[in-house]
Write a structure and sequence with these properties.
single chain; mainly alpha
């Protein structure tokens, strides 16, 4: 307190003492004066009882003026800016790069050719199976001439064309859903829904995860990436069933309420079956992708496991429901 009183007395007697230009020129503001005021303050604030136990505090005196270089603060600011700049480069915000495929990518040359080939093989390969006769008689072997088997090629062709239209419609619907997800969903969620799952499985395999953690992460990523495709398939199949239901109602000769009630029940059963099959396809595709990426190479194993689970899931669920609950999907 004595030191503070001395400084206030000096400010009253010499007004120029308080200005910045008088800090180094004035002889009153020296290091010894500051040290003396600090010593007086400490001595005044120390009670006599504590002096008996701990003694009087010792204060070191220094005549060297506390003078800093003029560019000292500028150097501190520059160093702090460099530190923040390096930290900003080290901890940058994650960017979500979303790459949308063309809206009509299903009609490009390679995808459309693969869809056409797969559809024709699906309906024309069963026609190549040889006809086997179980009951063969030796007496009729020499008498009967082999009859020519009539093969209808028109019906498989119509089914193949319908399958091509269905698959291209599903792919186009998925592209529409992707654009809606980019518009109405957050950027992070849209990036997860549109992520390239095989490449993501490769990146996850390079992080040194445990097998169970890696299986869970790949299955979760596949579930998100496969969700829009399953939703597009559900929408297309539901639209087809709605069209069939209305066509049956309009072409029916009987317009009584019983017929409408039966058609409504049949329509509900169809929609329930489509929903169960699509859900099974999504779940089993995710599980199969995790198993394939764990047992085989990450990218190829994930793709194979997803395809196998997508095909086997609805079949497994349909058989289980038919055996357990006697429900025909």
């Amino acid at each position: 307190m004595a030191g503070i009183a001395i400084l206030l007395d000096l400010c009253k007697k010499n007004p120029s003492f308080c200005y910045p230009q008088g800090l180094h020129s004035s002889g009153f503001f020296s290091a010894s004066a500051a040290a003396a005021s600090a010593a007086a303050t400490v001595a005044a604030g120390t009670p006599f009882a504590s002096r008996f136990l701990f003694g009087s505090p010792k204060v070191s005196h220094c005549d060297t003026a506390a003078d800093f270089p003029q560019d000292y603060i500028a150097n501190i600011q520059r160093v702090s800016q460099d530190i923040f700049k390096n930290d900003a480069l080290k901890y940058t915000a994650k960017e979500y790069k979303i790459e949308l495929k063309p809206l009509f990518s299903a009609f490009e040359l390679r995808p459309f050719a693969m869809t056409t080939l797969r559809s024709f093989l699906m309906f024309y390969l069963p026609l190549l199976e040889p006809a086997t006769n179980i009951e063969d008689d030796d007496d009729d072997f020499l008498q009967d001439t082999p009859e020519e088997r009539h093969v209808d090629l028109v019906v498989p062709f119509k089914k193949s064309v319908k399958q091509i239209i269905r698959e291209t419609t599903v792919i186009t619907t998925r592209r529409v859903l992707e654009r809606l997800a980019v518009i109405y969903v957050s950027q992070r969620m849209a990036w997860k829904l549109l992520k390239d799952v095989p490449k993501s499985a490769v990146r996850k395999s390079q992080r040194g995860m445990l097998t169970t953690v890696y299986f869970f992460r790949v299955s979760r990523t596949t579930f998100r990436g496969h969700l829009l495709g399953v939703a597009a398939a559900w929408l297309v199949q539901t639209g087809i069933e709605i069209y069939r239901c209305f066509s049956r109602l309009t072409n029916s000769e009987e317009g009584d309420g019983v017929n409408i009630t039966e058609q409504a029940k049949l329509f509900g059963k169809k929609i329930s079956g489509i929903t169960i099959r699509c859900g099974a396809s999504l779940v089993f595709a995710s599980i199969g992708a995790g198993i394939g990426a764990t047992l085989v190479r990450p990218s190829i194993g994930q793709w194979i496991g997803c395809a196998v689970g997508d095909l086997a899931g609805p079949i497994i669920v349909s058989v289980c429901l038919e055996k357990a609950l006697h429900v025909d999907l």
